[in-house]
Structure formats: structure tokens, C-alpha cells
Amino acid sequence: WQWERRFTQRFLFLALWQSVTKSCQYGKNAGDGTKWKSSDLFFMEKLKELYIATYGEMPKTTERLAASGSNRVYYRLCGEKCPNGSVVGVVGQSADENNAFINLTRHFTLRKLPVPHILAVAEDKMRYLQTDLGNRTLYEALQKGRNAGGRYTVKEKKLLERTIEALPELQFRGARGLDFSCCYPQPEFDRTGVLFDMYYFKYCFLKAVNIDFHEMKLEAAFQLMADELTAEHSEAFLYRDFQARNVMLSDDGRPYFIDYQGGRRGPCEYDVASFLWQASARYSDSLRKELVAKY
């Protein structure tokens, strides 16, 4: 009970700003995967080159996948020689961010954690191939419950339970032997990172929706919270964007984690709060308590 109270008090504010701002980002950036830009042909050709170098054949089909909240572009390439008939090709705009995801994924794979496998990487680190985890995200699987105002079925609750139970494996087993220097843009969630998040909340939410607040009192609260949130050292891996959109589901409902390239060393409670208080989920207090107990 004391642990539950501590993480809800310390991390609810951070979860709040993250869920609100992430919802705004996804509303702006999400696409249906059908609109092609002029750069798509260039990206697709580069991924085809990597695919051919890896499997020795031209992919039979290439499909641009729906956009997410990031600036990475995803394609599904299908062929006879690749694993299970298809792979996902990724084009990123930051070699450092790509390198973080690649190194983290290789480490997590060695730890036998539920993440995609890296199959091939371009020399410039701007493109890579990974295993295809399908199209079904946890977010999509929970759509009926969200539409019902947060009244989730037994089956939907089971998916949530399996996901929250798998999180500690990534946070603690994943942190074992991990070289945090590969994390991007910094290896640890420190005071600077906390304040960056809080100012993001201030300028991208409070000011954006014209909410009135006292500048000096808010700044004082930010400074106090930054001190509190960094008072304890943690050796856990902080996912930092742990939400239903970043969890893929296998046919039998097993969760697989994606989009953790912004992770770093940090407090484990942050991920729990981010997951349970994401803006669009509409989880009831009783369901949150059940999921905390499962965690």
C-alpha cells in the first residue's frame, strides 16, 4: 500500500502531462498508411537494397504502414526467404536514435525479452529491418472498452494484466548488464530530464489550451517536484513511453514491446503511472488498483 501511494503521488503529474501531450501528437501525426509522399519512393528503394543484400531476392510486395507519433517511417516487405514471409523496414531521421533502438533491442533479445529482432542494419544506421509483429496493438484491442467509457470486458482486462505483468521483466531483467551509454538522448532520467518534461507540459498543454496559472507558483512546484523525483537512484530501465500503442499483440494475446528508443535508466514507477493514467484509456480506479497489484 505504501509503495502504491508513493508512486501515484510522485509520478501521477508526469503521467498526466505525457498522456495529454502524446494524445495530441498522435492526433496530429497518425496516418492511415495509404498516402505516399515524394520521399517514400527514395526510402522504399533504400530499404529494398538492404532487403536484397540480406536475403538475396527482390521483395514481392512493399507496403507503407500507418504512421505513429514519431518521425520514423515503416514499411512491410514480403518475400519467400525472409522470416515468416515478411519483415518490417524502418527509416529513421536520427542515426543516434536508431542506434539506441538497435542496441537496446539486441540487448533485450539476448535477455529473451518480448521485443522484435533486428535482422539487418544499413551502414549509416539510418535504415534497418526487424521482425514483423503484425498489425494488432493493445490500443486497438481495447477499443471497445474505451468506446464503452472504460467498461472493459474480462478478455480486455486479461490483455491488460498480461501486459503489466510483463513490464517488470523489461525494466529489471532488461537493465541487467545494459550499457546505458547507448540510450538516447541521455543515459539517465535526471533533474534536467524532469524539468524538460514539466516545461513541455507547461508550453505544449497549459499554454496551448489557454489554462490560467500562476507562473511563479508553478515554477516553484516544478523545482520541488524535480528534487523529489530524482532523490532516489534507480537501476531500472525506464521505458518512458509505455502505453497501449507501443504494445503489439500476438495471435494468442502475448504482448511484445516496441518504440522504447527513448528509454534510459530511471524510476520504474514512471512507466506504471504512464500506462495506467494515459488520457484516452479511461481506466477506473478499481481497475488501476487491480493492475498495480498484478505489477
Report on this model:
The chain has helices at residues 2-29, 38-55, 95-110, 138-141, 143-147, 154-173, 191-206, 215-229, 268-276, 285-294, and strands at 61-64, 73-78, 86-91, 118-121, 127-131, 237-238, 247-249, 255-257, 264-265. The protein is α+β, with helices and mostly antiparallel strands and 295 residues long. The two termini are 13 Å apart. The strands form three sheets. Strands 1-2-3-5-4 form a five-stranded antiparallel sheet, with helices on both faces. Strands 6-9 form a two-stranded antiparallel sheet. A two-stranded antiparallel sheet has the order 7-8. The chain is globular and about 60 Å long.
Count the DSSP helices.
Answer: 10
The side-by-side strand order for the widest beta sheet comes to 1-2-3-5-4
**Rg, Å, rounded:** 20 Å
* Spatial separation of the terminal alpha carbons: 13 Å
Number of strands: 9
Give the helices and strands as they follow along the chain: HHEEEHEEHHHHHEEEEHH
Helix content: 40-55%
**Structural class assignment:** alpha+beta
Strand content: 5-15%
Q: What do the pLDDT scores average to?
A: 88
Weakly predicted, low-confidence segments: 23-36
| Global geometry | globular
Q: What characterizes the major β-sheet?
A: 5 strands, antiparallel
Gist of the model:
By secondary structure, the protein is α+β, with helices and mostly antiparallel strands. 48% of the residues lie in helices and 12% in strands.
